[in-house]
Backbone:
């Protein structure tokens, strides 16, 4: 992505150092790991100031000080009070002060989470009700609509049997319940298998991206140029 | 022969790692034609069709919240959609959450494409920079829908919204045609607050690993579309008729999958041979 030779060299050395862990855990790998962690925290603090605190908070106060904004903007200074309260978590004696602000945040978060879940889950419930009658399609019976109904039936069976699997309060002597629970477990295993397949795809993408960087950007772009 | 095969069971995993790395270099040295399927699946087409339906007075919001950690798949997903937007002359606003490095990564992908398409920064597209969400991304998304300028008063370089013509036109969610969120695992709050409250289409670009989690939202119509890993990007590029990063990377990934299948086959063969040898002994 970047053509700066120094960046490419650092990127290549760090990548190779991380790959060296595949052979054996070593000091170079641990050094790179700690350096990456430190660098990301350091850069994160700078960016948090430049892109969040400065434009949203400090510039309002500074502009009020310069007279370009009304003095009411000084009220932003009050944000320091709840902000500082968080740090009382480090004191056993004054810990209760931090609970005031954390209670405020948890209350707001709980309210939003309720709204969030309602908006998210209600369409999921209504989306689970799918047509099963192949003759009730928009153009009557068609093979395409028949296929959709079969797909919907598989979905319904998967949904019900998976739910059944999680009803731990049901007696399992009943043959129908036992079969349903077993089918639910198979459905879960199919879903987990699909997840595992996608996990492999993602890990492979990571590796390919690094190999591409090493070969195209570093080896061909820098060493062979 | 059986003895040699039995040795596969006790083969050090380091050899497997080395073989995988060396073999994955082959598609970079020799172009192996592994084109994506010609017919794009519904998920990618949903994103494509929603962008195609964008009216000229609206903009598309891209939440590009990825950095080095998920660049392997998210880069291609951003690249193909930005290319489509530029082709259709649709203006777009870029936001970033989750990681403070995201605005820089987004700019590096968008700038060359936008420049080539003759897009002017500030007029046709804006990178609004990093938005600190803390632990409550829902509040930020909800706030952005109601008053975008309150959440992002400047762009990522500190230029005020009043000096950026495009941001003057983007005030609430009503000015936005669609939200496309690209990150490792996009926040579901985009669905609940943007689609659920305002019925504005939402699309996701996520890592392959997260696919099964989000397919339920696609099925229920809460997501208008989704680009799943490099495969999704490759499918989108096929729709655009412009093969690029996604197509290339999915070709290499297909080769990598063949290596994994071969390794699993050989490993099982080794285990079978070792068990047979033990029985004989």
Residues:
């Amino acid at each position: 992505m970047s053509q700066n030779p120094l960046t490419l060299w650092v990127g290549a050395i760090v990548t190779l150092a991380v790959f060296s862990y595949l052979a054996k855990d070593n000091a170079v790998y641990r050094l790179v790991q700690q350096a990456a962690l430190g660098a990301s925290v350091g850069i994160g603090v700078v960016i948090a100031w430049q892109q969040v605190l400065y434009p949203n908070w400090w510039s309002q106060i500074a502009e009020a000080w310069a007279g370009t904004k009304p003095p009411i903007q000084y009220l932003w200074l009050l944000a320091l009070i709840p902000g500082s309260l968080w740090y009382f978590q480090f004191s056993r004696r004054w810990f209760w002060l931090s609970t005031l602000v954390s209670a405020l945040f948890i209350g707001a978060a709980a309210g939003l989470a309720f709204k969030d879940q309602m908006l998210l889950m209600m369409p999921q419930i209504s989306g689970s009700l799918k047509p099963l009658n192949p003759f009730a399609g928009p153009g009557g019976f068609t093979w395409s609509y028949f296929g959709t109904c079969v797909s919907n039936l598989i979905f319904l069976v998967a949904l019900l049997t998976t739910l059944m699997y999680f009803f731990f309060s049901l007696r399992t002597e009943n043959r129908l319940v036992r079969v349903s629970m077993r089918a639910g477990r198979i459905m879960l295993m199919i879903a987990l298998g699909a997840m595992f397949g996608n996990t492999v795809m993602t890990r492979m993408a990571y590796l390919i991206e690094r190999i591409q960087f090493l070969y195209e950007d570093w080896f061909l772009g820098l060493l062979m140029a | 022969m059986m003895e040699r095969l039995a040795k596969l069971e006790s083969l050090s995993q380091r050899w497997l790692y080395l073989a995988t790395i060396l073999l994955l270099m082959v598609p970079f040295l020799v172009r192996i034609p592994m084109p994506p399927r010609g017919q794009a699946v519904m998920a990618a087409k949903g994103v494509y069709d929603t962008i195609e339906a964008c009216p000229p007075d609206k903009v598309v919001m891209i939440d590009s919240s990825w950095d080095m950690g998920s660049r392997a798949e998210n880069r291609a997903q951003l690249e193909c959609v930005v290319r489509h937007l530029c082709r259709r002359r649709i203006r777009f606003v870029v936001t970033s959450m989750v990681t403070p490095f995201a605005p820089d990564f987004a700019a590096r992908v968008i700038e060359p494409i936008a420049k080539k398409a003759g897009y002017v920064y500030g007029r046709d597209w804006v990178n609004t920079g990093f938005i600190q969400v803390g632990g409550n991304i829902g509040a930020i998304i909800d706030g952005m829908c109601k008053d975008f300028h309150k959440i992002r008063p400047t762009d990522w370089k500190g230029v005020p919204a009043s000096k950026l013509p495009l941001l003057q036109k983007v005030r609430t969610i009503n000015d936005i045609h669609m939200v496309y969120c690209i990150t490792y695992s996009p926040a579901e709050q985009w669905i609940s607050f943007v689609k659920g409250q305002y019925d504005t289409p939402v699309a996701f670009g996520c890592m392959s690993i997260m696919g099964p989690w989000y397919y339920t939202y696609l099925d229920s119509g809460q997501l208008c579309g989704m680009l799943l890993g490099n495969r999704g990007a490759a499918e989108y590029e096929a729709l655009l008729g412009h093969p690029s990063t996604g197509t290339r990377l999915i070709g290499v990934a297909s080769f990598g999958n063949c290596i994994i299948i071969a390794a699993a086959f050989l490993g099982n063969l080794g285990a079978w041979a070792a068990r047979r040898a033990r029985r004989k002994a």
